[in-house]
Amino acid sequence: MLDKKFKTLDEQIEIFRSKNLTINNEEYAKRVLLRENYFFLNGYRHLFLNKDRTYKEGTTLEELYSLFLFDRTFRNICFKNILIIENNFKSISSYQLSKKYGYRERDYLRSKNFTSNPSKQRQINDLLKKMKRQIRINSNQHAATQHYADNYGYIPLWILVKVLSFGIVSEMYSILKEDDRQAISSIYDIDPDTFETYLPILANYRNLCAHEDILYENRTQKQIPDTVYHQLLKIPRQDGEYIYGKNDAFSLLIIMKQLLEKEKFNSLVIEVENAVQTLAYNLKTIPITDVLRKMGFPLNWKELKNIERSKDNNE
Length: 315
Fold this sequence. Notes:
Layout: H1 9-18, H2 26-36, H3 38-42, H4 61-101, H5 105-108, H6 121-138, H7 143-151, H8 157-160, H9 166-174, H10 178-185, H11 192-210, H12 228-232, E1 237-238, E2 241-242, H13 249-259, H14 262-282, H15 288-295
Antiparallel strand pairs: 1-2
């Protein structure tokens, strides 16, 4: 097994230089490497490389770092909006289910409240165990759950969802009865199957953002269905499939377009546009279109903001 030995900041700089990356200011480079980590910064190298894996002539550490910082900004914009979607989804779900099944856990945590599909019974039982475990764990550790447990002797679903992960609540949606799935997804004017597809993708992006993984070039295993947005933005196809907006960062924007309120999504687009413009100014050896292509952003991506919600539907 190969041994990855510790490298000093000076040695890290020399590795960069050996790969043709220009270091204009060694003290600045050391500050960046110490704070940001060579391994994570190096993860943004691909767009700047020649075929022989050396940096394109003239590429500087500042340029590499600008892409790193852009991705951090883009990630933070997405993260805060995914959290809004998560909170909205939890609130809507807890309201709909509490209204129908009751507000005590002995009422809403019954297997009969979920789908009768035989193939999902094991999943239902496993999920109920996870939710009950969260009640046991958080009844004495989370202020709101402890308050209800101590003063009322139960924890209502609208409180429980605060301590449940996005993944667990998303899984809960997938095993609800059809009319409950419809009641929740109809709030967003989205069909239940499409909504169910969106949820684990959002949960995946939420975790990616929380752990500061590379976002701009991320590809998800699941693809979103074709939407009216793909059609109206005239996204080109290859072998019958849209080349942008299926499992890339632009597909995340398409999801958020449908799940966020209009003014919040418009603010998101403005923030992303500002980040793109800043990066474009800082790039010298590659064009901003290279980055947008990696993100799955068509050149007219900003027009997504102008498509009216009344047209939101699948193709």
